[in-house]
Every structure is written in structure tokens, then in C-alpha cells.
Request: fold
Amino acid sequence: MTHREVSDTGKRGIDLLRDPHLNKSTAFSEAEKQTLGLVGLVPEGSDSAESQIRRILLQLDRIGGDLDKYVYLSALQEYDETLFYGLLRSDPARFLRLVYTPTVGEACLEFSRIIRPPKGLYVSIKRKGHVREILRNWPRRDVRFIVVTSGERILGLGDLGANGMGIPVGKLALYTACGGVPPQFTLPIMMDCGANNETLLQDPLYLGLRQSRPSAAEVDEFVEEFVTAVNEEFPDCCIQFEDWARRDAFALLARYRDRVCCFNDDIQGSGAVGLAGILSALRITGGKLSEQTFLFLGAGQAGIGIAEILTQAMTQEGLSAERARARIWLFNRGGLIESTRSDLIDLQKPYAHQHAPGKTFAAAIESIKPTAIIGVSTMAKAFSQQVVDTMARLNRRPIIFSLSNPTSRAECSAEEAYRWSEGRAVFASGSPFASVRYDGQTFVPGQCNNMYIFPALGLALYATRARRVTKEMFITAARALAEQVTATDLALGLIYPPQSNILETEVHIAQRVAETIFARGLAAVAKPDDLRGFIKSQVYTAEYGSLI
Reply:
């Protein structure tokens, strides 16, 4: 699936150059220049895709900081979408970190200062009662994927209000760059309900609604109007809830998962990518999943999401759900989650086992003796040398996942995990870390990032037109991701496939998820004889097609 043809759009000249979906920048042919009124509006020369990318690389090399590079790439996306995605796919490991984690965190903090022309819709609670009218302002009628945030829990940065728009924009860029979903079918949305961030509200450049957040009941009513309007305006659309506050995240997923095609990436995507990493890690450490003991630092969306999918996967190995949960422990700011705690939400209670109260994470490790610790706390440096030392003393190959984003909130760095464990840790992080040289050996840390899951799920949904998203799809995706880690990868300590080949990785995951969709009768299209070929035929290719 390539660049769309212009024959039926009627766009010519400067209007064509201002359309990022059709613009070819400096790659128009002579015939296109003559036919489409472009003579004089573009240089006489005509670039190949390779020379276009070479020129962009030269320009990027002259730009200092990552945030400035983010702004440059954002501008590129605004005037030549095909070239933007061609660039991202030319070197995913280099560019994905600039358009998403970790740079997107800095971009959201500065969003009101670096704001570009809108790439999505701002749906304000001030416009309650008119949400459907706002959706009609979007120029395309066939929307298949919406990523929507309230901006209340942006990565590990807290409530950033309307500045959180950078998250849905970035997520949907990954839908296309990593998963091959055609970009014309995607729509980023910020549901602006104000912000409980006084510094933000007093910022003279802040562009969001300047009010405190309303009651939960008002938000629920507003989201109900939104979901209903999306279902009516874009009936083939899947809604991805992203970076909502904990209460809203779990409540919205429970309310809508069986009613519309939707999922929550922070809960379910995090769960799937976490499970995939554990499955790969066990190929290094040995043992079955159902024999492990897990201790989480953090008990919010990501923690509960990973815990729940680990529970489901362990039941597939024969454990009851109760016995599986008994192998999972949670620790949050209030200490170890155990049966005497009275401050727990319902989703934490199944993991509140009988145990003496504990206030330090290192002490919890000593008493519980986990084989793996998983950091989803946004508490920078919470995995201290004492924590890593203790894990290394209790385990020949300790599994240490430092998953909080952005990098500034990571529980520990790759270098710390390897050095403090004397090179024995099996490590993964949420944001990218460079390779580490220790005691004559090079370790390549894996990035446990949802970018491996949600774009592949999106491709499977797009190809099959599935009517619902199920829990089973996420377990399928996790196993499909883990099975692509090679023995060579594992020898380097890498427990996720290299990002250099991420599109092929996600096509494979999408194929496996599509198999589940067809098996459960959730597809709206007939199952093809060659499923892999069918999935690949749906992939957006960042190549220019003829415009005449």
C-alpha cells in the first residue's frame, strides 16, 4: 500500500505541495511537474528517495538536542508524510527514540512552546454536548484507529493537561512506522478536561483549558458522549485509551471492552510486552513461568496489567488463578501490598497476600526471594545497589526490569544493573540504553516498550476488521514477540528482537493475532488461504507512487 494517487483529488500546484499525504517534496517527476502545475514551485532537479533521506540526515546532524530533532521531524511529517515514514523505517533504532520514547516525554513538557500545526483533534469538556460535531471537523471519514488521552498521567511525568497531545501523535506514528497501518486511517485525540497542575495553569503559553479537573462523574459522562460519537461517526474504529489516570483507565476499560472495539495500552500493551520479556528471559535463566516469583515496584496500570497477564499465562501452564497470583507480589509507596493493608483498590486486592508489613523494597526482596523484580514505579533510582546486590545474591541470573519512562524516571540504568550484579543480570528497560561493556563482555539491554505490541495489534485489527479486542490477543502477541528472539540475541543479553527489523517483527505478531481473531470468529472479512501474504499486502509502504 503506497502513496495515494492524486487523480481523483483535483489538487494541483501549491495546494498539492501543502498536502502532506500527497506531497513528494523534491521527488516529483518532470511529467508530474508539467501536468500538476508544479513548474517553478519546486527545483528543476528530481531526487530519489535515497538522496532525500541523505539530505535529511545532513540536516539532522547539524541539530544539537533531541528535542530540536523532534521538532524538525514533526515538521517533516507535516509537509511530506511519505518521506517522514521512509526516514523512520530507514533506521528505526535511531529515529523511533526521537519521535517517541524517551524524547516524547521532553516534548510533552514543552508542548505549548513547540506546538506545530494540529495533527489531531482537541475535544474539550467545555464543548460537552457537541462532541459529534467536533469529530465531523476531521477531514477524513474512514478512521480506523483513535489514540485518545486525557493528559492526566503522561508517562511518569504526571498531569500535563493538553500538553499530553504529544502522546497520541507519537503512538499513531508508531502504528505506521512499526506496524504498517496506513496513516490516513489514524486520528490522535486529546480530551481536554483541564489539569490539576497549578504550574501549568499559570503558564502564560499553556494552550489547554485553564481549569481544575472536574468530578469523576462529569468525566464519565463526557467520555460516554465521546465513545458514542466515535461509534456513530467512525463505526469501524478501534479506540486506544492512553495515559489516563489510574481510576479512569481501569474503569473505562471495564466499561467499554465488551461494548466497542477498544483497549488500554498502559494496562494491556504493557502486560503483553512484559510477558514477552519474561518468556525470553526464562530461556536464559531456565525454569517454567509457573515456577517464578515476581515482585513489582509499582502497583498502578502497568504493574496490574503485567501481573494480570502473567497470571493468565501461568494458568495456561496448569496453575489455578489463585495459585498463580500467589507467585506475584506488589510493592508501592505505602510499602508491601499485603492482607492487612486497608488502602488498596479492588484490582490490587487479589495480590494482597498474608505477610508481615514491609516498608523497604530491599527487605521485601529478602523475605519474598523473587526470581524477578519489575519496576513500574516512575521512582528514579529506586533499584539501588542494595536492591540489585540482594537480587544477585539470591539468584544466579536475576531478572531485573527497569521499565519506567522516560529515562529520567528509570528505576536503574543498564550499566548499574550489569555492574552491580557482576554481569549476571537479565535486564530490560522501558527507554533505550546503550550497550554496556563489563568484564570483557558486551551486553545489549532490551527495550521493554509497548511499541512491539500495539502497532502489531493495530495491523491485525486493520487487516481483519475485527469487532473486538480480547485478552487472548495480548497473550498471543506476547508469545509471538518472544518467539522471534534468537539464540544470538540471548547470548548478548538481548531479550527483545532488535528494532532494526521491527516491521518484520510486527508483521509476524500481527499474523499470529489475526489467527486468533479468525479462530474466535471476530473477523469481518473471510480468512485468506495465505494469511501471512494477506497481512503483508495490507502494510503501508513509504514509497511514492505516480500522481498522474
